[in-house]
Amino acid sequence: MSSATAQLAAMDVVDVCANCKQNRDCFLSQRMPAETSGCVGIVQRRQALPPGTYLFRRNTPLRSIYLVSAGSIKTQRDTADGELLVNGFYLGGDLVGIDAISDGLHPCDAIATTDSEVCRIDFTRLMSECARRPELGSWVMAQISHYAKRRDDDLAWTAGLHAHSRVLRFFLDLHDRLTAQNDDLGDTAQLPMRKQDIARYLQMTPETLSRNLAALCRDGLLELHSDRFALPDRSRARSVTQI
Amino acid sequence: MSSATAQLAAMDVVDVCANCKQNRDCFLSQRMPAETSGCVGIVQRRQALPPGTYLFRRNTPLRSIYLVSAGSIKTQRDTADGELLVNGFYLGGDLVGIDAISDGLHPCDAIATTDSEVCRIDFTRLMSECARRPELGSWVMAQISHYAKRRDDDLAWTAGLHAHSRVLRFFLDLHDRLTAQNDDLGDTAQLPMRKQDIARYLQMTPETLSRNLAALCRDGLLELHSDRFALPDRSRARSVTQI
DNA sequence: CGCCTCATTGATCGTTGTCAAGCCGGGTGG
DNA sequence: CCACCCGGCTTGACAACGATCAATGAGGCG
Lengths: 243, 243
What we know:
Oligomer: homodimer
Order of helices and strands of chain A: HHHEEEEEEEEHHHEHHEEH
Strand content of chain A: 15-25%
CATH topology of the largest domain in chain A: Jelly Rolls
Number of helices of chain A: 9
Distance between the termini of chain A: 56 Å
Radius of gyration of chain A: 19 Å
Largest sheet of chain A: 4 strands, antiparallel
CATH architecture of the largest domain in chain A: Sandwich
CATH class of the largest domain in chain A: Mainly Beta
Structural class of chain A: alpha+beta
């Protein structure tokens, strides 16, 4: 690579990150500030993904993890009875693929549910970077632990709640996460995934989801128009979900 | 500490580990082989815990993680509707407390469900040791990721299965884990926790668990006498749980 | 326009939760 | 030693939530 090309690459990185919605809270720009040129090889920034694009597939070796910068990624796997189960939705700022670290194989597919953008991080080089910089290593540890904790929390509030509350809770959580990444969100937000995926995430049939959505709209706790939604009465919604 | 006392401590560690059932696969003796004397301060080995003993409580700061060397530890928290939920059972070789790493607070109680034994690992010192030794750091990372993966797997096979299959699957899994840590297990094994805890783990009422246990015994898939159990027909059991 | 997938709505059935009563074993105190 | 109690466990009757089956509507795309 000529020095002119290297220079160009470094410029690209700066440019690409400057336009990124995440750049204020982005761990890449925070944790690797001075070494932008050195990170060109580790991080491939802001790949555009049309909906339906596979980021990786089940049972393939872990080569990269991904930081979502826009849109939404779902991870899915099979249940014991052969149905699809959506493991989680990853929004801006979330790290996709860390569930593969323990055995080096991705346990699930990762698929964009809407027009999305990710930064790809070479895992091997990230690990060697962690070996050199302990604070980066503990940051990755905290990320993985955070992922585990999120799974635990999901399971705890899913348990025992009826479908009605689970659905409402999903929308409250989604709204919180969307506003966290994009503070100038209006009163309505766009649903970045299909209802089928939500049903598979909440572990209920599409029929049950549909019925409960209708009920929530009737009760004035939720508004749904095509692919946009709003939560007119957040406080009442939270009391219903018992938080 | 006088050199005589240090010598004694080192002797104690060796002695205590030599008698441990885990010592062949123990990560402490494997990963910290040459530095036994240096590890005396980090690891407090083989504390005995009578049933009901709290290892730590919810919302307390993370000071130590624990490696189970005998018995069984349950972790529990509250569901959204205020009921108890058993998060998991930790048997010999399992690491308890890693779900607290992300925010430094234990999200759940950890309680011995039977006579147990743990090695206590000072978390701060473990982290600084990880900073010095990257391969230890990546080992801890893999442990956390493994924990996350196990949670994912739990959720995936819990999803969609009826109580009947979930119960059977629990006993298959339990038997596998018990034999893994103690290869000379007879044809029956001891249940290291109460049925109430199993019900709270499998997210069903004690009544449902009891009914399904009775059904499994009637079908010849499970044998239960007081606190011992056996799986007479593993292959049929596996086919029923669709593995 | 026809095809296809997703989404909705209705009718019915089954598993599980709920409420209630009774059983068993261990521990305590008279 | 026995009576008593208490928590854990079991069993039964019933109701309810959600799954299943089925039909229809809505939107995207060739």
